[in-house]
Specification:
By secondary structure, this protein is of the alpha+beta class. The chain is about 60% helix and about 10% strand.
Length: about 525
């Protein structure tokens, strides 16, 4: 029976199935409004509960939308309330969280200002500050340091200062050895896990250029990446590979599920396997400093892991929007994180553009063959299957890389003033090499079997070395490297057009989707 629904009905039905797709823009609008107007905390604290209770009583969409809007405003106001720093040189206590950069003489930490002396009065704070200490001070992650110094606040009139302030990083301190009053060690599970993993990677005896990239792609420690390496990967379109993100958390998800697969044979083993997998995924997220993109990926994969245990549906755009929605409610400043924005746009484009396109490419390839051609040769048949799967992987990786680069190109140009089309050309081989290196490193971290150290070292040295050479070559070839900065209005217009294209795809008759051969992201 033909499908009689109109395109508009298809769009409305799709939106009803994905309520978080509607709720996410509303909560983002609330954060932006609070940021633009400087909404006081007391105003948001009064208006939100009133609107929430009213929405519960009357159950109207407009009232619910208003409550979500004010929830976003309240989230930002709560985080901004405690962002105050001393205006002069004084005594202060800070907690050092994780290392952001280090060289032969200095070490920079992301830290939190806990308290400071304001004219003889102790003031509490939770402002985020970048702290630079001498290497000789032996400051460590998780430690507490009491110093006498002054905070250099970021200038909101500059692009960098405005970006850092919106992220919640209010200033920086450069500490000299004589400024340190006291220093005590602390414990952070993520830092401890990362330190243990780094020691295991060190046993592979990798070259310095390889080890700096290897620790970045496996455990998220980017402090040893040189400026030239970062420049090369940026111009080659592979800078996203250096930051632990959904791609890397996905590798952890696959490895853990493979290692825990024998548990499924026992009674209750599937539940135990899912709980252990979720726990290990979040341990990895802690080890990677719980960056927004890692938390998003860990949350999505946790939802997906539980859905596998419960036998429910696939993880799609609604789950992605739900994850980001929760993160914004927790901290409204999340929407200003460039990594999260680029990651969200890339994953959304893969889900809504790449997957349907790949489903169309691979649809019905085998069903159209005559029956006598489906019989396989006992020897050549398996070889043909391997070749076919390899070709499907190459096509899938190329399409995903193309879609992700097209989707993130306007925002990357707006934020960084430059973009490269090399990511479209070399994206698939770079992702393939990164996948092999990361999977090898993670397996070595989990199972450091000494006899296999030589094999693991060779694999990592070869694959990461190839990535470095490819990135360096792309950086020197300026044929498709561009220095263009798209304005904010133009960026919004481009993404509005992207949204309209996506909605237009939703309006297409569902008959083709129902009759098409199912396609899974596991083929990518």
């Amino acid at each position: 029976m033909p499908d009689m629904t109109t395109p508009l009905e298809n769009i409305l039905q799709r939106l009803r199935q994905m309520p978080m797709v509607v709720a996410l823009p509303i909560v983002v609008a609330g954060v932006l409004c609070a940021d633009a107007t400087g909404m006081p905390l007391w105003v948001a604290s009064i208006l939100f509960p009133i609107s929430f209770l009213t929405a519960l009583k009357w159950r109207r969409f407009t009232l619910l939308a208003l409550a979500i809007f004010l929830a976003g405003a309240l989230s930002l106001s709560l985080r901004r309330e405690g962002e105050h720093i001393p205006s002069h040189r004084t005594c202060m206590e800070l907690r050092l969280k994780h290392i952001t950069h280090e060289d032969d003489s200095l070490r920079q930490f992301a830290s939190t200002l806990l308290a400071y002396d304001e004219l003889g009065v102790l003031r509490r704070s939770h402002s985020s500050i970048r702290v630079t200490t001498p290497l000789a001070a032996k400051c460590c992650e998780g430690g507490h340091i009491v110093i006498e110094g002054s905070v250099r606040s970021h200038n909101p009139s500059t692009d960098y200062g405005s970006y850092m302030l919106r992220k919640g990083v209010v200033g920086s301190i450069k500490v000299q050895q004589q400024d340190i009053i006291s220093l005590r060690e602390g414990f952070m599970l993520g830092a401890w896990l990362q330190q243990k993993a780094q020691l295991r990677i060190g046993k592979l005896s990798l070259s310095e250029s390889t080890q700096s990239i290897a620790t970045a792609i496996s455990i998220g420690r980017q402090s040893r990446i040189t400026p030239s390496q970062r420049h090369n990967y940026t111009l080659s379109g592979g800078s996203h590979l250096l930051a632990v993100s959904g791609l890397h958390v996905g590798f952890v998800f696959v490895i853990i599920n493979l290692l825990l697969l024998p548990l499924s044979r026992f009674r209750g083993g599937a539940v135990l396997r899912s709980l252990l997998a979720c726990t290990l995924i979040w341990c990895y997220a802690l080890m990677a400093h719980s960056s927004p993109s890692v938390v998003r990926a860990a949350t999505m994969l946790t939802i997906f892991q539980l859905s596998l245990m419960l036998g429910s549906g696939n993880m799609r755009l609604n789950s992605l929007c739900f994850t980001v929605f929760v993160m914004i409610l927790w901290d409204g400043r999340t929407i200003y994180d460039a990594g999260l924005l680029l990651s969200f746009i890339a994953v959304a484009a893969i889900v809504e553009w790449a997957v349907p396109l790949l489903r169309l490419i691979f649809r019905g390839n085998e069903q159209t063959l005559p029956q006598h051609l489906k019989r396989q040769h006992p020897i050549l048949g398996p070889l043909k299957n391997v070749a076919r799967y390899a070709m499907q992987w190459i096509i899938s990786a190329s399409v995903v890389s193309l879609v992700a680069n097209i989707a993130t190109l306007p925002l990357a140009s707006h934020l960084f003033g430059k973009f490269s089309l090399w990511g479209i050309v070399v994206g698939a081989p770079m992702v393939a090499l990164c996948s092999i290196a990361t999977m090898t490193l993670l397996m070595w971290i989990l199972l450091p079997i000494p006899p296999l150290a030589g094999v693991a070292s060779w694999v990592v040295e070869t694959t990461v070395g190839a990535m470095n050479h490819m990135a360096k070559w792309c950086a020197t070839e300026d044929a498709i490297n561009f220095t263009v900065q798209i304005g904010e209005v133009s960026c919004w217009l481009i993404y509005t057009a992207y949204l309209l294209i996506t909605v237009a795809l939703w309006s297409i008759n569902k008959k083709d989707r129902l009759n098409s051969k199912p396609f899974s992201l596991s083929k990518i």
